[in-house]
Structure formats: C-alpha cells, structure tokens
Amino acid sequence: MIQDNKWWKDATVYQIWPASYKDSNGDGVGDIPGIISTLDYIKNLGVDVIWLSPMYDSPQEDMGYDISDYTKVYPKYGTMEEMDQLIKECHARGLKLVLDLVINHTSDQHKWFQESRSSKTNPKRDWYIWKKPRYDADGNRKPPTNWISYFSGSTWEYDEKTDEYYLHMFAVGQPDLNWENEETRKAIYQDALKYWYEKGVDGFRIDTAGMYSKRSYEDAPIVFPDSEWQPCKEFHQNGPRIHEFHKEMVEQVTGHYDVMTVGEVGHGSREENLKYVSAKEKEMNMIFLFDLVELGSDPRDRFAYNGYKLSELKKAIENQSVFLEGTDGWSTTFSENHDQPRSVTRFGNDSDEWRVKSGKLIAMMIASLTGTLYLYQGQEIGMTNVPKDWDISEYKDINSINYYAELVKKYGDDKKKIAEFMKTLNLVARDNARSPVQWDASAHAGFTTGTPWTRVNDNYPKINAASQVNDPTSNYSFWVDMLKVRKSNKESLIYGKLEVVDFENEEVFSYFKESDDGKYKSYVVLNFTDKSIPFKSLASGKTELLISNQPDLVEDTLSPYEGRVYKVQV
Ligand code: TEU
After folding, report:
1. What is the 8-class DSSP label of residue 207?
2. pTM greater than the 0.85 cutoff
3. Where do the Glycosyl hydrolase family 13 catalytic domain residues begin and end (predicted)?
4. Pocket test for ligand 1, best of 70, 212, 292, 339 (most atoms within 8 A of CB)
C-alpha cells in the first residue's frame, strides 16, 4: 500500500453521533457545545480527525439522515455560530473535522421536495423520482415496483395530490433525489458540499455512496415468497452512472480543497470497490465495507441473524483489505458505527469477567489492520449493547420499530416468535450504538442534567469515561497505548499486506502484516475464546512483544481473550 504524505492515511478518526454524545443545556439531547467541552478528551486519546454525524436541520425521522436544510443547524444541537466555533476549536487543537454528506435523499420537509410534490409541472418535479401507479387485474392501485425499503415496506409512497408515487429507499420521509438531473446535482454540490468546505470543514463521510445511480425501475426477483416486497440492491447499488457522479463531484467541488472523503459503500466486487478508491480514478479516498460488521446477518436483512464462525470473521477481514493490495487505492478499518451494535458484545464477550479484556482484544485487531482507523463514540471505554431485558419501548430507531411492527402484523400474538426476535434485535439493532455516552457515574452517566431522550445503559456505574482516563488498566488507556503502537509501527500496521495464517483455526486469529518492501513485519495473535490455549509462534524470525492485554503473560499459553502484537525482526 502506498505510503505518502496524505494526512488522512495515518489518521485515527473518532465518530460523534450528536444526539447521544454530550448534552450541555439539560434538554436531554446532545449538542455542539457539549462536543466542544470534550475536545481535549478526544485529543488525549490520540485521535486526529472527528467525523460528526448529521447536525443539519431535520425533522429527525431517521435521526438527522433526513435533512430539511443543508445550510442550517438543527436547533436542538445548536447554532451556526456554535458550528463555526467547533470548527475553530478543533483546528486550534490540531484536530480535523469531517461532516456527513447525505445526498441520496433529503427529508420530505426540504423545500426542494415541497416544491417537487406541489404539481407535475413544478420546475423541481424532476428533482425527485416520481412514477405512475400500476393497477392489478382487480383494479387495485399498486406501487411502480415491488422493491423493499431498508426500513420495511415498499420503497414507494403514493402522493394523492398528483396521483403518482415517489421513491424512498429509506423512510417515507426520505425521498430519493434524482441524480439524473444536472440541475439537481449542481444544487446538491452547492448547498451540501461547497457551503461547508468554504466554512473550513476538512471533508465528508459520504452516506450511501453507491446508491445515487438507479439502474432501472423493474420488479425485483422474488426471494422472500411470503412478502409483497423484495430486496432490490441490483437496481440501485453501484449503478451505471455512479462513478461518473463521484468524479463530477470531485472535479467540480471537492478537488479544490485539501480534504478527505470516505464513502459508505458496503458491498461490491473487488473491481467495483477499487473504482471508488483508486487514486487515479479521483472519486473518494477510502470506503467503508460491511463484511465484518454484517457478519452472521443476511445482507438483505440484518435481522435474519444466524451467527458466525471465527474463520468467517477472518474471511470478512480479508475481503475488506486484500482488494487493495498492489493497487493505488486506500480503505478503512473499523468495527463500530452508529448503524451497528457494540463490538465487545458482538465479537468479544461482554460479561463482567471478560468485558475489559475482550474489548482490548478487539482494539488490537482493528488497530493492527491496514487503512484509516475509525473509532465510534464510547468504543474507547468499551461500551456494550443495551441490556437484554429492555422492552421494545426502549428502542427508538425507525429501523427497529418498523421491523418489529411488521413482525407483529405477521405473527400476531405468537409470543415465542416475538421473544426470539427480541433476542436478535438486542444483538444487532442500531439502538445499541445510540444509547448515551457514559461520561461518569453520576445520574444519567453525566450525559445530561435533564431527562435523556433515550435510555442510558444500566451499566454506566461500572463503565464510564471518568473512571477510565487515569486508570492504566482501563480500555481507554489501552486504546491510547495501542494507537501509539500503531503509529510507531505504521509501515506494517497501517500500510502492510495482510497474511492470515492457520486460517482453519476456529479459536485463534493469527496474521502477519508486512510492509511492501519486506523491511517491517508485525505478528498478531488473538485468542477469541474464554479458555487457555497452547501457543507456539509461527514467526520465522525473532519476535519482540509490542503490546498485549495480558499483564504477565506466559510465553507458550494464550490466556482467555489474550491478544499479542509482536514486531518480527527481519
Ligand atoms: O446507512 C445506509 C445503509 O445502507 C445501512 O447501514 C443502513 O442503515 C442499514 O442497512 C439499515 O438496516 C446510512 C446511514 O448510515 C444510516 O444511519 C441512515 O439511516 C441511512 O444511510 C439513510 O440515510
């Protein structure tokens, strides 16, 4: 992988999801002054860049990913002056600030959509995707296609006023923009990008970056026979003009600034993924792939969860990294974000006995892989999923709520089915990432002095930042150390080629990371079980231990959840 002077390659990025981060005024919702008050905490962790999830004006049907005005700040989060101050305060500490670019869709409250829906002849009619109804043999009105929305039900919403349907891949209140229309694209570039670049932001995380170019509007093949709505990725993911659109965006706007961009792409073939990130293509700097975070789930339905074997986790990690090898492309390493459960619960063991140690194990894994590293708020202190016994009423995410409602419609009072689903929901729901950050052991974990908009995880008295920052044995301190190890061995850890060894081993994950010129090599060994396992080094040269989560380790035995990162003398 090419090591050059691009600042974003070595960077560690910390994602803030504003609603649940830190409340400064007691209204129960996180806000921008709250973020500013924690910048030193973030800096001290060893982070270089902050990615702030949407803080734009929004009716919050999908927690800000439904934007009603790109050039305004959501009043509960603060004012434009406070955003300006955040940019300034970040820069004063040597931190960069990256925003979220949500341009596949707007909110239905955006003035563009209000105009578009007002009549068929409105000049902005074609800014969104409108189609005529279909009728079945009995004359019943039906949507234009059988596509299923990411948030359950049809992707089409009927609008009585003009007797047409509009497309929404996500919530009903998130109509898809029509990227085929050049005027629409120009308006997006101006409001969503240029406006913020001119204010000094350092780049964007590009939401649903593979979805703007729709392939065609036809029925999808039936894969869920008992549902009217069918998965339709092939019609909207990596569509025919997607790369042209990204190139245009770079040429017209992004390319004029020294910024970074990371696209949420999710899935694709090696060739397709490379098109987004290859330096010569000039589209974006890196992408997020979902192989790891969707492990065990059906990619068409995250709540169809069947578990996974360690070898599948290895495969997922390999898929996310090896497509880059020998190319001029770049990518990311991460295990959490606002759409995913907590990784200690998901990939480690969140029991009191192993929580801290397995959190460190995952830190060693994620921070020894190639690409720009992303951490999600609370991950640094080992926050876990919400408790298993919480009622459905504690879940606030539209994704969870809609899915649950469909299930109740389908299975009625089948208590067994619903109880089974609640187990899966608890394991994979986005709500797990969205419980407030646990700052200290005071009421509501110090997140707010008021009533939190969503419930604080009951475990905050034992898991919180205040008790960890000065404790050398904490998850927080381990992250600080691990980030230092990563940077001081960057030739192998940040830029190296991945070689998984002992692939079939379902208990231990071992791999080498080697610099392109073969001069630097690291050896990572991770015991993913709660038992001790005999260990014999597979490194051919002499090894020097760089970091481990086991204080007095025994050379030839891996204790439960023990991880080690060695430097190999070559
Ligand atoms: O997510 C897009 C996406 O494809 C998924 O991660 C999605 O959230 C998941 O499959 C639902 O089960 C982005 C944002 O990250 C997400 O928060 C938004 O809800 C979505 O786009 C719409 O803007």
Report:
1. T
2. yes
3. 15-434
4. 339
